[in-house]
Amino acid sequence: MFFERVEGGEKALLVHIDFYAQHEREDADEFVELAISAGLTITSMIKATGNSPNARSLIGSGKLAEIGAMVEAEGADVVLFNHVLTPSQERNIEAELECRVQDRTGLILDIFSKRARTSEGQLQVELAQLEFVSTRLIRGWTHLERQKGGIGMRGPGETQLETDRRLISKRIHTIQKRLDKVKKQRIQGRRSRKRSELPTVAIVGYTNAGKSTLFNQITNSDVYVADQLFATLDPTLRRIDIPHLGPVVLADTVGFIRHLPHRLVQAFKATLEETVEADLLIHVVDAAADERDDNIEQVRQVLEEIGAGNHKQILVYNKIDLLAHVDAKIDYDEENGKPERVWMSARNSDGLDELYQAIGEALGVEQWIGKIILPPSYGQLRAILFEQSAIVDECWDEKGNQVLSLSMSKNGIRKLEKELSIDWHELVLEGDPMIEIKEPWMRDD
After folding, report:
1. In this structure, are 303 and 224 located in the same domain?
2. Structural domain containing residue 53
3. Residue 343 within a domain
4. CA 288 – CA 286 distance, rounded (Å)
């Protein structure tokens, strides 16, 4: 099967053209980061401007000749264009430069193939690659003639190109069937969480904004973290206990990027459904990035594309340790009083308490604040309350009973009543005894 892969250590010549006719232009600095993330050695970057793309070769013959001279002088193995090339443009440029050419979409696909670690992630990337490469197969087989049929066969057989297209089509069908099975498993998992009344919080954001670092801080996990684009591709789910709130399911998702190739969005549809089905989105932003506002808009566009544009969302301005005179805090919406932004540093855990508070308020979880009295036989309940960080203070009365000051969700109290077969009303010393409240994020079966 015909694939072209960028190998680590290859010399790459980068080409970035600003076309005046294009409203949304690519970012040259981000293009360099993508190339580095692919493990390439950058020889140089050619920048130019133009009125509009050339239909045949994207750029004019003069600029192509300049690039060809640079390729020869620097010994470049591949020329990367920070643009989306049509199959014909790619073939024409390769014929002119006599060098391998790859566009922005192909580069991102290659990075994804290197980063995917789970079988599901690898299948999703392979599907996107197959759909991408199927339109470019002719480039690899133009030198082959039509194969003749074997003994007893009349007329010409199929070309190598037709064979590969048939094999690719068959493989795509196989992958789609396997991903459909994964999708059904995810749906079943979400139904189980729904029955257990667990809210889901999904971490989203621009690539390299610090999503996985935040995920690791909250969950004490060791999800792969690196200062590079698309360090994390495979979604990770963890059940955690948020202080004064109780258990929730936290999902770490793939990072977004400007002009994320549509075939990648489609290939990762099963994964991105964790975002679509979430009760709350934690939109992580690199607060120190110069293009911060533009990155926020790019993420919002992808969320719109996958059907999560109207989801409840908190903006988390991460990396405040790189900013001067910025402290951890919560910014509230003046209209409804709900948390809108949280300023924090995931790396230093500065602002985690503010984030927990904002999550609870955004989910609209009703808190129970009061005191309960526990006889010595209630040691299991006390241990659970400590695990959930629900105990604010504790002391003992003259009879040896524990008196606990609590702050926790009313839904969490109902779950404890059911799991431990206890009557909370009998334990209450101070506080509202009425806990029959249905949380806004809870859905009916």
Report:
1. yes
2. 11-113
3. yes
4. 5
89 burial (CB, 10 Å; 0-12 / 13-18 / 19+) is: buried
Q: Give the tokens for residue 90.
A: 């790619």
> Tokens 């999800």 sit at which residue?
223
The pLDDT tens digits for 375-415 are 888 888 888 888 777 788 888 888 888 898 887 777 778 77
As given in the structure block, the two tokens for residue 103 are: 């566009």
Overall pTM surpassing 0.90 (yes/no): no
Residues 225 and 355 both lie in one domain: yes
pLDDT level of residue 222 (50, 70, 90 thresholds):
low
For the chain, how many residues are written? 445
Domain boundary among the residues 179, 207, 231 is at: 179
Instruction: Give yes or no: residues 227 and 326 share one domain.
Output: yes
Backbone φ, ψ for residue 179 (5° rounding): -70, -30
User: Is pLDDT above 90 for 70?
Assistant: yes
CB atoms under 10 Å from CB of 245, counted, come to 25
Distance (Å, whole) CA 397 – CA 381: 18
Residues 145, 238 within the same domain: no
Same domain, 69 and 100: yes
Longest dimension (CA), the chain: 101
Q: Distance between the two ends of the chain, CA-based, in angstroms?
A: 47
Region class of 98: left (phi > 0), else alpha (psi between -120 and 50), else beta: left
Tokens for 328, please give them. 């951890």
28 within some domain: yes
Using an 8 Å Cβ cutoff, are 149 and 204 in contact? no
Domain count, the chain: 4
Q: Nearest CA to 349 among 210, 199, 207, 203? A: 210
User: Are 300 and 357 contained in the same domain?
Assistant: yes
The answer on pLDDT for 232 being more than 70 is: no
Residues 153 and 30 in one domain: no
- What tokens does 96 get? 């002119």
Helices (H) and strands (E) in the chain, counts: 15, 15
* Within a domain: 175: yes
